[in-house]
Hints:
- The protein has 11 helices and 12 strands.
- By secondary structure, it is of the alpha/beta class.
- It has a 6-stranded parallel beta sheet, sandwiched between helices. A 3-stranded antiparallel beta sheet has the order 7-8-9, with helices on both faces. Strands 10-11-12 form a 3-stranded antiparallel beta sheet.
- Helix 4 packs across helix 5 and helix 6 runs antiparallel to helix 7 (206-217).
- The radius of gyration is 19 Å and the shape is globular.
- It starts with 5 loop residues before the first strand and ends with a helix.
- The chain binds nicotinamide-adenine-dinucleotide.
- Nicotinamide-adenine-dinucleotide is lined by residues 10-16, 36-38, 41, 78-80, 82, 99, 102-103, 119-121, 123, 144, 148, 176, 229-230, 234.
- Nicotinamide-adenine-dinucleotide (NAD) is lined by residues 10-16, 36-38, 41, 78-80, 82, 99, 102-103, 119-121, 123, 144, 148, 176, 229-230, 234.
Amino acid sequence: MMERLSVGFVGTGNVGIAGAFACLCLQVPSEMVLVDLNEKRSRAEALDLMHGQGLTGRIKIVSGDYSELADSQVIVISAGAAQKPGETRLDLLQKNALIFKSIADELDRYAPNAILVVATNPVDVMTYILQELSDRPNGLIMGTGTMLDTSRFRSLLGDFYHVDPQSVHGYILGEHGDSEFPAWSTVTIGGKRIVDNTVLKRPWNPEAMQDLFVNVRDAAYEIIEGKGYTNWAIGVVIATLVHRIVDDRRSILPVSVRLNGDYGLSDVCLSVPSLVSIKGLRHIVEASLPDREMEALHHSASVLKKSMEGLDLSTVSGDS
Length: 320
Ligand SMILES: NC(=O)c1ccc[n+]([C@@H]2O[C@H](COP(=O)([O-])OP(=O)(O)OC[C@H]3O[C@@H](n4cnc5c(N)ncnc54)[C@H](O)[C@@H]3O)[C@@H](O)[C@H]2O)c1
């Protein structure tokens, strides 16, 4: 008998539910379990999603408490508190660390072997925090990282070069945030690097490419100004990542992972090309980055480490 593929969602706000909806449309799992502090909301979302099954095909969709996640192979976490006026970034981080502590305890109790995918922002820091708080190996915990930014990047490059974005290869690497950078050396179309080359009749245009990257980096600000949050593209990212994992594709994706000496960096989570499988993170690929991009990666790592200064995990983990 085929094993049931169950995917859990902790946090069924705008992001979690967009991920669940994309999973439903892509028919990724055979079961989805929705868990949220707001149980009424997660139950309503489960019912609402279920009613599409007459057209999409059957997927069991339930809401419930953490014990319902016992059979989930992958669990997506987008739970978190939003920043309140007057609250500092560090206050918010400390508050979200406390939320993640209760989530880590519940998931370690009910689903100790599941792969955890973090989407909550700041995603690199929250991935690091969850790795610190959970008992499972770090390789079973990854963040969506710059998958979203990379998808935006490929979409805009596809537009610029009038080509299918899926025929554009390359990555945004580093932090999912202001210090991220375009790894131009990795960007190819039809096997040809776009840097310093004419591709599809378009010569390399540094100014246009810088503008394009700024649009990628700052896209969330514009979207949030217009609708208050971002969710559809991250929903597609979540469903794609979950699909690649449960399908054991061994895809190489820019997810947020803990570096242990890779790229000369350690004790930080950020996005570099990483091979993921049904067993979680399998390999970190050390891309041959030129000095300028290597410096950008190191800068991103130092920005992330600085953002965690002052964060006290002993107060949330009860180790103090
Ligand atoms: N990684 C990315 O690329 C990316 C993109 C967009 C948004 N985000 C982030 O995703 C997160 C969620 O955004 P959103 O728009 O869905 O927010 P939201 O406020 O709509 O949803 C958050 C949900 O978390 C729930 N929650 C809070 N504490 C909980 C707990 N202890 N246990 C279970 N559930 C709990 C809330 O009830 C709420 O439903 C934010 O941190 C946001 O910045 C990340």
